[in-house]
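STRUCTURE REQUEST FORM
Protein name: Major facilitator superfamily (MFS) profile domain-containing protein
Source organism: Aureobasidium pullulans
Requested output: structure tokens
Priority: standard
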Amino acid sequence: MTSKIQPFYIFAILVLAAGGIPKGYDEGGFSASVTLPSFKQDYNLVKTHWKHDPTGLANRTANITSFGVLGAAFGALIAFFGNDKLGRLWSFRCSILVWAAGLLMQVFSSGIFGFLLFSRIFSGLGAGALTVVSPLFLSEIAPAKTRGMTVSIYMVMLLSFLSLGFFINYGANLHLAATRMQYRLVQSIPLIPVGLAFIGSFFMPDSPRWLASKGRHEESVAALARLRGMDVNNPELLAEHAGIEMDSATIAELKNASLKSTATEVFSSPTLRSRFLLALAMQTIAQWTGGNGITYYISDIFQYAGISGSNTSLITSGAYGLVKLLFTMIFAWGLIDLLGRRRCFMTGLSLQCATHIYMAIYFGAIPDSNKSASNAAVASVFIYAIGWSIGLCTIPYIYGTELFPTRVRSLCYAVVMAAHWFFQFAVVRVTPLMLTALDKWGAYTFWACICASGLVILGLWAPETKGIPMERMDELFHRPWYKCGSAKVSIESFDDSFHGGDEKAVAMHTERAV
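Status: completed
Returned output:
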């Protein structure tokens, strides 16, 4: 394929990557807005009101933060039906509308605690669905050689707004009066870029792979041609499309497939089952290494490590987000399709494990008065961010979208992302309790053990998938799970057959046209 990047393709990537904004801003902007004086006053989160029930205050705060995550878990499951029935494009649009409606209800809850929790769940439905639709859509429009980078743009967009959220809160805390308008403005920010993405989606075609799975051959070729900036009769384009085309029997089978039959196929096929369980294991390990739990409570963690003052904590938290963003960009635009998935997540997990071990020692055996140790603890949090960014922050999204064939991709990825959100809900809900009940060092010891386990399990199980067409992933899993990590597929043989198939693809296209 030609290496020239088309402007419309870049436009499509940016529109779809905006689906990561709701999740990113929720982790940064909303989680930080809970600490604003105006929000605390409106929803009775002031410490002096809970002198005799500190646990009640902790639970109230945790519910506000975690209910959006709970809604997202169900949204990820619901996305399966929209993805396959409505198509990737309309599923993307509907998810945005649900999220935006929930966010508007959240912004104008006006101190009504029960309505706030309902709106958090409602907006979470849309945000969770977008975490399925956007990466999956991106993986289906990307060429195999740059698929990792393309899907990673989603995480770059997510982390950009996560970082931005901390700084917006800092500015609001510094310059705006502590009225309802303060937190309403902060929480409304993501409506602007996501709204622009919603409008932009009306200038895009649906996924060529989804169109092909519905037997809409001409539309599928036209969509791919528009994304690649080529004529519909271009031999290279038709050769690429031949790799995703389906025969009439397969299309008929897909049309008649039910949820039960699709799930049965996944669990009855050894290779599909291995791929599904690998994607599930990767999300499980990612969340229980600390992952997003640490992000949601990063301001508190910096204060535990010796940072004092709410504004200073917000600035430091923003810097933490920027470090994650910077290294995710390096990962997306250099490492992921150059070094490969395995090297990145093994390096990332190793860094996470090392920093967790240090933090466990710091909180368990080093006095608070030791300034050097405190500075090292703050530094280790940033090193942790680097490990998380180049490893399990993004790679589970890539694996989850590229491991499966089209006929089961939507179901498998929806279930995997639902598990991601359920685990994130659990982690966000229990992290403050773990830090308290386990005296901080115990929580870090637990996370370090998960990282160590992940190095072993994923090191044995997760194969290198860079540059491998999604239609050939099956070849990596024809062996026991603990030997899949060393499996390889010859990319050269694919390239030869790809270019050799030009004439066949043109002939197939001509035959269909006749």
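Reviewer notes: The mean pLDDT is 86. DSSP finds 25 helices and no strands in the chain.
Form closed.
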